[in-house]
Amino acid sequence: MVRQLEADILATPSKGVALVTGAAQGMGKDIALRLASDGYDVAINDLPNKLELLKEVQSQIEATGKKSTILTADISIESKVKEMVESTVSQLGSLEVMVSNAGICTTKSMLEVDAEEWDRFFAINTRGTFLCYKYAAIQMIHQGRGGRIIGASSIASKRGWEMGSAYSGSKFAVRGLTQSAASELGRYGITVNTYAPGFIDTPMLADAANSVASGADRAVADKAWAGMAPLNRIGQTADVAGLVSFLASSESSFITGQSVSVVYSRRSPLRVIFS
Ligand code: NAD
């Protein structure tokens, strides 16, 4: 019985190919696994220092009977993103879904952010997303079958955060980029949307939380952050992966140019902690 089930899974035809950036951990990892269980072969990207984690994700994808390839690259570098998309196609055959998930975050007063740090946020969060959209779109137009381009914005892309100027600024820009790209690419049957998560339990959130609070204060901060969400909990990666699965599916074919909030935020997050 189990053998038959395994054989059925292995025999299921692929829905196409998805490429997920920042897939070694956090949301990117769960999105990659969800798309594999939805039936996609999945190319997974992250920085070279995350290779071991990527190998674990690849094994988990292959255990579902889908193909996977690892493409280490810094998504802020144009030549690397072009190469990453080309390698996805040469190794897995095509590109139907691009998930530009990789990003960085900080919690720091605007008065302490220097120009170099500001530029780093825009290089990774904004330019990196632009490059992923651009090279995915070129490939999808070439294939002539439409496609799905999905980016990571944030609730911080809808309301500027205290202690988050560089992050909020870079994510607001992702929303603008997404609307423009959706307007341009609709004629090719390509939709472009972002997921805009609130607080989701990932290594990024742990780092951000540790930078503003430690020890007993950290527990208070976690409780306060959970309390920002109407459902009174911190989100899980599966909450986001489910949305991405929908945005990648045929059911979402008329939805484009949107940044879909995963949760409504009652107040500016750091005000919750500091007030
Ligand atoms: P994470 O830090 O846990 O994972 C992000 C991954 O991106 C890491 O593995 C990292 O190595 C990779 N990455 C960073 N820079 C890269 C680069 N230049 N090239 C390639 N890979 C790179 O983060 P996460 O919480 O899973 O966040 C995923 C996305 O969701 C990010 O864009 C983040 O800004 C956004 N987001 C997160 C939250 C949250 O609460 N966790 C909320 C809103 C939005």
UniProtKB/TrEMBL annotation:
Report the superkingdom from the record. Answer: Eukaryota
One annotated GO molecular function:
quinone binding
Q: Which UniProt keywords apply?
A: NADP
In terms of PROSITE patterns, this protein maps to: ADH_SHORT (PS00061)
| Keyword rRNA-binding belongs to the record | no
Supply the PANTHER family for this chain.
3-OXOACYL-(ACYL-CARRIER-PROTEIN) REDUCTASE, SHORT-CHAIN DEHYDROGENASES/REDUCTASES FAMILY MEMBER
**What protein family does this chain belong to?**
Belongs to the short-chain dehydrogenases/reductases (SDR) family.
| Protein name (Swiss-Prot/TrEMBL) | NAD(P)-binding protein
